[in-house]
Amino acid sequence: MNGVKLSGAQILLKSIEAEGVDTIFGYPGGMALPIYDALYDSGIRHILARHEQGVAHAADGYARATGRPGVCLATSGPGATNLVTGLANAFMDSVPMVAITGQVTRPSLGRDSFQEADITGITMPITKHNFLVKEPAELARTVKEAFYIATTGRPGPVLIDVPSDISLSQIDYKPPYEVNLPGYKPAPNTAPRKIMEAAQAIADARRPLIYAGGGVVISGAHNELLKLAEMLAAPVTCTLMGLGGFPGNHPLFLGMLGMHGTKYANFAVSDCDLLIAVGARFDNRVTGKVETFASKAKIIHIDIDPAEIDKNVKVDIPIEGDVKIVLDQLLAVLRPNLEEAWREKIKAWKREYPLKYCKSGNIKPQYVIQEIYNLTEGNARITTEVGQHQMWTAQYYSFTKPRSFITSGGLGTMGFGLPAAIGVQVGCPDEVVFDIAGDGSIQMNIQELCTAVNYNLPINVAILNNGYLGLVRQWQEMFYNRRYSQSELLNPDFVKLAEAYGAVGIRVTSKEEVAPALQRAIQLKKPVMLDIVIDREDNVLPIVPPGESLDKMLG
Amino acid sequence: MKHTLSVLVENNPGVLARVAGLFSRRGFNIDSLAVGMTDNSSVSRMTIVVEGDERYLEQLNKQLHKLVDVIKISDITRDAYVDRELVLIKVSADAAKRAEIMQLVDIFRARIVDVSPKTLTIEVTGNDGKVTAFEDSLRPFGIKELVRTGKIAMLRGKRASSKNHINKEEDES
After folding, report:
1. Domain around B137
2. Which residue of A has its CA nearest to B24?
3. Interface of A with B (CB under 8 A)
4. Which of A83, A553, B7, B122 would staple B46 via disulfide (CB 3.0–4.6 Å)?
5. Which tens digit of pLDDT belongs to each residue from A52-100?
6. Are B145 and B138 in contact, with CB atoms under 8 Å apart?
7. What is the dihedral of CA B81, B86, B89, B95, to 10 degrees?
8. A402 half-sphere exposure, CB direction, 13 A CA radius
């Protein structure tokens, strides 16, 4: 191919295709027009969202569901700034994404030109890295480097800002053969000494507990984690991001830990003498009061990102490395050390403090979630928005497979679930996809319902409608003396809204209707929005009050 | 305790913003920062002075390493090193005081680089102790303006914190 003259835009798309990308998410605009023009002749499938935030979340959902990088495309200025929340979201949850933005021409840069925004400056703290392409000849290599950075080590979003005169320039295309990133080291080397130290600590432990995070899912280490847990007969608790990384129906599974974790998971953290943190980052929603977190335990921390070690909690045995590789090495030297008393204690906690909800009254959100699980036999891909419905999903949907739970963890982005579900369905066309939503969150990116209709993506949106910003209301009830400041919502008619978009709307107002409505939605194989009217003032319980120790749970 | 970090970075546009942004958003304080090109024009060196305990420094070091443009970080605080800072001081100097100031300039091996009827501008290089002592001794005359480059530093002897190989490696010294 050497010596062929191509436009910058053609080179850009060629370089993306060379990375194995066949689908991108985007929204056109002035400075991206040269790229869109080249796209017209390209083999890449483009999903047109209805807002650039939807673009970013869809690419994110696609990446989380498939493990392949999500690619998004937007124009300069507002197009680029609308991606910002999506990039921050992907950055917090370590999602591999490459965002390409059009930019004003090089001579117009820095002159406050029409639709100019310093998007590399703006996204510096919320991308793993970003590039402003200054020369056409740099384009191909930049794309290669962007994908390399986004997908290796601890994954994350990378942004490439492309001035439109670069997209229009005609140059010789030379495919890049290698990346040139002297300062980038994707994964640290694991010190064998630390593996031995960890093996010894495990052999010495009487009450070990495994605390697994999103790193297990990203690394594809779910089988190794299962082996580790079974070999040690050690209980396992997952973070929100870790759910699906360990079978939710396994007898050793304790559910989620932290603010809305199970009581037995939090008691186990507080009582264990060895905490094995696997691909988790000791987020404050997990630790509660940091000073008392796992205070009886020695802590082993396995993470690919050295900066996560000792960041929030001082650990005893740090192991830097890819979780899957480290667990493999650890499994090779472990001696099982089964301790009956610890398991009995946990069994007793499980019996005494199960997750429970009041079953009388109207439709219970927990019940809806369990019915979605039952009807799909746990095989659906679930996305969520952010709020009560998200926590109930984490508690009551028993995730058994990695990448089956796609949720905004670190950033907590309302409006994530619907566009993410679109990305998931694009990536997994034959699977059943549910966005479990709240009536508040769903309205933050409701326009994406049109995208689902446009591409006939049979996503199911289950709105758990309580007419409140439920988690806000719950905090106001519990910590602000029931002063419901700005948390009650006037909502549109979601059924009519769904129909206006060309989707199917189904309203559910009684418990008996829940299962048939869900069944019908799944069978329709069309975009469906279910407006499920639930009890208005149900709370997510148990809860560790903010700033409290994990064993001080309410509810 | 104060630490002196010698940081090699790729000489890319925005690299200073990346480093400075990291310091501000993670709550690290910079005492001084000096940056300039090395003998390799694609690589710059930042000499950064920060104050904090071991855990603080370790976290700072790890966060800096995550920047793709950062090639190598050496904390040279505990090694033998030469450090220099260049300071320009404009001091009030009427005819009556001039001789006294020039004596101080001699004592500190400083240099007068500009003269006006009412002021002298003096250049002094040295480590922090010397520069501070010189500044203190000039203060009674009336310092009108002062500008410091921030500290630059280099290891003593044949060891180098950079060499020309560009490997991102942990420097445990």
Report:
1. 82-152
2. A125
3. 120-121, 124-125, 128-129, 132, 134, 149, 181-185, 305-307, 309-311, 314
4. B7
5. 999 999 999 999 999 999 999 999 999 999 999 999 999 999 999 999 9
6. no
7. 90
8. 22
Q: Is the pLDDT of residue B164 over 60?
A: no
- Whether the per-residue pLDDT at B162 is higher than 70: the answer is no
Q: Are A235 and A209 in contact (CB under 8 A)?
A: yes
Q: Is B65 on the interface with A (CB under 8 A)?
A: yes
Q: How sure is the predictor about B169, in pLDDT bands with cuts at 50, 70 and 90?
A: very low
Is the same domain home to A136 and A60?
Answer: yes
pLDDT at A497: 98
For residue A46, the cross-strand partners are A24
pLDDT at residue A340 in the model: 87
Contact A204, A45 (CB under 8 A): no
**Residue B32 confidence (pLDDT) above 60:** yes
Cα angle B166, B171, B172; round to 5: 165
**Contact (CB, 8 A) for A101 and A141:** no
ipTM: 0.90
Read off φ and ψ for residue B21, nearest 5 degrees: -65, -40
Q: Give ∠ CA A25-A422-A471 in degrees, rounded to 5.
A: 120
Structural domain contains residue A357: no
Do B50 and B2 meet the contact criterion of CB atoms below 8 Å apart?
yes
First to last CA, chain B: 16
Q: Give the A:B interface size as CB pairs under 8 Å.
A: 50
B88 falls within a domain: yes
pLDDT for position A195: 97
Q: Between A125, A132, A183, which is nearest B25 by CB?
A: A125
Residue B165 confidence (pLDDT) above 60:
no
Residue B128: predicted pLDDT: 87
For residues A62 and A509, give the distance between their C-alpha atoms in angstroms, rounded to a whole number.
32
Alpha carbon of B103: minimum distance to chain A alpha carbons (Å):
49
User: What pLDDT does B171 receive?
Assistant: 43
Which pLDDT does position A555 carry in this prediction?
A: 87
d(CA A52, CA A164): 19
What is the SS3 assignment for A173? Answer: coil
Which domain covers residue A108, as residue numbers? 5-172
Q: Say which CATH number the domain at A263 has.
A: 3.40.50.1220
Domain-terminating residue out of B80, B101, B122: B80
Task: Please tell me whether residue A26 adopts helix, strand or coil conformation.
Answer: strand
Of B14, B67, B71, the CB nearest to A182: B71
Distance CA A413, CA A390 (A): 11
Last residue of a domain, one of B59, B80, B101: B80
| pLDDT given for residue A67 in this prediction | 98
| Count of structural domains, chain A | 3
B94 near B100, Cβ under 8 Å?
Answer: no
**Under an 8 A CB cutoff, do B17 and A314 touch?**
no
Question: Which of A132, A182, A309 is facing B10, going by the closest CB pair?
Answer: A182
| Residues of chain A falling short of pLDDT 70 | 1-3
Between positions 9 and 48 of B, the ones with CB within 8 A of A are 9-10, 13-14, 17-18, 21-22, 25
Give A194-206 as a 3 state SS string.
Answer: HHHHHHHHHHHCC
CATH number at residue B48: 3.30.70.260
d(CA A106, CA A393) in angstroms, rounded, equals 48
Q: What is the Cα gyration radius of chain B?
A: 19
Identify the band that residue B167 occupies on the pLDDT scale cut at 50, 70 and 90.
very low
